[in-house]
Fold this protein.
Amino acid sequence: MSENEQAEPTLSIGELATRSGVSAEAIRYYERERVVPAAARGGPGRYRRYDEADVERLQFIRRARELGFSLDEVRELLALNDGSPSRPCTDVNRIARAHLAQVDEKLERLGALRAELDRVIGECAGVVPVADCRILGALSGGPASDR
Amino acid sequence: MSENEQAEPTLSIGELATRSGVSAEAIRYYERERVVPAAARGGPGRYRRYDEADVERLQFIRRARELGFSLDEVRELLALNDGSPSRPCTDVNRIARAHLAQVDEKLERLGALRAELDRVIGECAGVVPVADCRILGALSGGPASDR
DNA sequence: AGTACACCCTGTAGTGGCTACAAGGTCAAC
DNA sequence: GTTGACCTTGTAGCCACTACAGGGTGTACT
């Protein structure tokens, strides 16, 4: 923990992209949106330069995004991760549990939609004239034999 | 079926909105996007005028949208509904089943995400210091006790 | 005739989280 | 010195709307 700190920021945005699994354009977008701080500009040109800590930060963001956290939530999680290490992780749990509740809600809505769609499709053999199609019937008039 | 056809388009866009459950702004958007044909303009002014058939068409669109069909799919479904009534509804079924498959895929991905999120949250009691938080640990370093 | 007020019009900007360019600048190798 | 891979900023697009701004119109009532 005390000797794997590297000396200089030497990675280009393309290398950071490869190593973190986040596209260079997304990284620039995160900088614009202040999800990550503005990168140092090194070398003779004005290119962005990154180090290993940036790789880890971007991987953190990628994993959080894969779990469905919004960029607002990611910003909060990063702030907590970067903040004082001795504080209890109550807020981390609050954010994660609230997000889980949202995911559950979405799952429930999508499951209900799926069931309804399946029901509607199940009523139609698929070979009857359009005029008698139960799928179109359901869309036109509501439950089943309404038209 | 032969005598409930009304004579004139008399509804304003606001009345159509109320009766169809689709906002007036969404109706204008659908017209711009050619989901519905441009409305007739009646009266002394240049206001859009609608009839009962338009109410039904908008209800059709609303129900299809509630089932998660995209506007592209809605356009196709409307075309089939408006087309020759004796054609078999094969295409309707194809669209609906393809959409169901997409919904199933989304459900699967969301379910997997939910399980992973639940697992990550389950590892953290919520009262430990941020430095030891398993949620942040999972985001920073991968599976469980990696850091 | 005036006027208040609800409704309508078009057009534009914003949402989230990026991706996909265009048009140009920079760097290292050969 | 020149190729070619990379980098830069800035803008437009995705989806299906929503939310205005800034103005016009219809109707009811005085």
The radius of gyration of chain B is 25 Å. Chain B touches chain A through 53 residues (CB under 8 Å). The first helix of chain B runs from residue 13 to 20.
